[in-house]
Amino acid sequence: PIVKKEKLADKIYLMDVKAPRVAQYCEPGQFVIVKIDEQGERIPLTICDYNREAGTITIVFQTVGASTQRMVSLEQGDAFADFVGPLGCPSDLIDEDIEELKKKKIVFIAGGVGTAPVYPQVKWLHEHGIQADVIVGAKTQSLILLEEEMKAVGNVYITTDDGSYERKGMVTQVIQELHDQGKQYDVCVAIGPMIMMKFVCLLTKKLEIPTIVSMNPIMVDGTGMCGGCRVSVGGEIKFACVDGPEFDGHLVNWDEAMMRQQTYKTAEGRAMLKELEGETHHGGCGHCEG
Ligand code: NAD
Ligand code: FES
User: Fold this and answer.
1) How far is the CA of 43 from the centre of ligand 2 (A)?
2) Which ligand is nearest to the CA of 229?
3) Does ligand 1 have an atom closer than 6 angstroms to the CB of 284?
4) How far is the CA of 216 from the centre of ligand 1 (A)?
5) Is the CB of 282 under 6 A from ligand 1?
6) CB neighbours of 157 closer than 8 A, spacing ≥ 6?
7) Helix, strand or coil for residue 45?
8) C-alpha span between 260 and 88 (Å, rounded)
9) What is the phi-psi region of residue 182: left when phi exceeds 0, alpha when psi lies from -120 to 50, beta otherwise?
């Protein structure tokens, strides 16, 4: 059941969903797969927040296609047919020794809708006595998400592509500026569109800041069986749903990841991937019949 629904910005919605077993076990960095009804598409969504006492999970989604558009028609009191999770591995940060973590300077890069999955990690650190820097980037002021919530748990730097609010420019410019001002970071965590994560990684590699990214490729089963979410990391084939979604951003093959994202959109593209990836292409959405 959906216990709360809120429009955060144009085409971006927040829902609190009653899912006590997911809320009991989930950790920052994990995701869920939702289905609206029996025939519905499986939609992977990173967990944005959770409340173990209330047994709720907060998801934030953007309407990008027919299924997410149908999700918007669901109201408080309606229910999803399936709400599966927690899936994927929790963020590496939460497994580190807390005293060691306190010595580290951490910067989060939250791009657009990617701000939603950044929030639980920053909140978790704050709850453990660690104040991280957070660079939030959005196309324009009206698309900035969770500003007050984020400011309550981290040191926030906002930038907009069009300069309509605070700084003008992309997140990479802010990283460079903070670096030039003498800020030294031990870890960067970047979550947002792939193109942003790619350019953040190119910069942080130059600045020698280890960088974790959260990959959101096409997913189907979310359990490592279909092969849809394949990513090359350090020359090895990984599956974002079971090996990730977080990876060392300096090792991700971004051009391949972005090519797959586009290619999977058409049947012709999927056939081409099957050809390209040969024996290592284990299935993939729509290929089980072959
Ligand atoms: P957007 O296009 O508005 O970009 C957000 C910010 O990223 C920009 O404001 C800019 O600062 C930065 N950026 C974009 N391109 C850049 C570049 N070339 N170099 C440097 N910085 C750049 O973001 P959006 O429209 O909210 O993005 C939606 C996308 O985010 C969807 O494709 C969605 O799948 C993805 N997403 C990813 C995750 C994840 O886990 N990685 C989570 C939610 C959404
Ligand atoms: Fe990861 Fe299918 S979604 S293997």
Assistant:
1) 12
2) 2
3) no
4) 11
5) no
6) 133, 134, 135, 136, 166, 167, 174, 178
7) strand
8) 20
9) left
Report the C-alpha gap between 13 and 145 in whole angstroms: 10
* CA nearest ligand 1 atom 7, residue: 111
pTM: 0.89
* Token pair for 149: 């919530």
Around Cβ 213, how many Cβ atoms within 10 Å? 31
- Distance CA(165)–CA(142), nearest Å, equals 9
Take atom 22 of ligand 1 and give the residue whose Cα is closest: 196
Ligand nearest the Cα atom of residue 110: 1
Residue-wise pLDDT for 244-257, tens only, equals: 999 999 999 999 99
Ligand 2 centre to CA of 97 (Å) is 30
Give residue-wise pLDDT tens across range 73-128.
Answer: 999 999 999 999 999 999 888 888 899 999 999 999 999 999 999 999 999 999 99
**Mapping DSSP to helix (H, G, I), strand (E, B) and coil, where does residue 272 land?**
helix
Ligand 2 atom having least distance to the Cα of 285: 2
| Mean pLDDT for the stretch of residues 142-155 | 94
Q: Find out whether 209 and 231 touch, Cβ atoms under 8 Å.
A: no
